[in-house]
């Protein structure tokens, strides 16, 4: 069993049981490292593009068992967020 490929049915079944006990184990070290390299490459390319000035940062490769972090419940662009924060600093709160 030690030499079975990670993708085999038995390995996946055992990993599911282990995941319930220990946490996420769907990706091995190679997959995690490859996703990190892809994320870093995307950021490097983004920094040199005109999208960097517009703050359209690339999204990381989704990892199994990891949910993207969200702040708040509404979507707003950078200009709307800056306006909202400036109103809060002045004590005016949310504009209805």
Which blocks of ≥5 consecutive residues have pLDDT under 50?
Answer: none
Radius of gyration: 21 Å
Helix content: 40-55%
Tally of DSSP helical segments = 3
Mean pLDDT: 77
Q: Helix and strand succession?
A: HHH
Structure summary, number of beta strands: 0
How does the major sheet shape up?
none
Bin the strand percentage. Answer: under 5%
Which descriptor suits the 3D outline?
elongated
Distance between the termini: 62 Å
Helix/strand/pairing category: mainly alpha
Describe this structure in words.
It is elongated, with a radius of gyration of 21 Å. The chain has helices spanning 9-22, 29-47, 78-89. The model has no long low-confidence stretch (mean pLDDT 77). It is mostly helical. The chain is built from 3 helices and no strands. It is 47% helix and 0% strand.
What labels would you give this structure?
mainly alpha
Lay out the secondary structure.
Layout lengths: L8 H14 L6 H19 L30 H12 L7
Compact overview of the structure:
With about 100 residues, the chain is mainly α.
């Amino acid at each position: 069993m030690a030499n079975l490929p990670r993708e085999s049915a038995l390995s996946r079944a055992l990993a599911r049981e282990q995941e319930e006990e220990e946490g996420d184990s769907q990706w091995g070290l190679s997959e995690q490292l490859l996703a990190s390299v892809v994320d870093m490459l995307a950021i490097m390319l983004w920094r040199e593009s005109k999208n960097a000035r517009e703050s359209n940062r690339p999204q990381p490769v989704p990892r199994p068992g990891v949910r993207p972090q969200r702040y708040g419940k509404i979507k707003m662009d950078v200009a709307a967020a800056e306006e909202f924060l400036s109103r809060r600093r002045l004590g005016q709160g949310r504009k209805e």
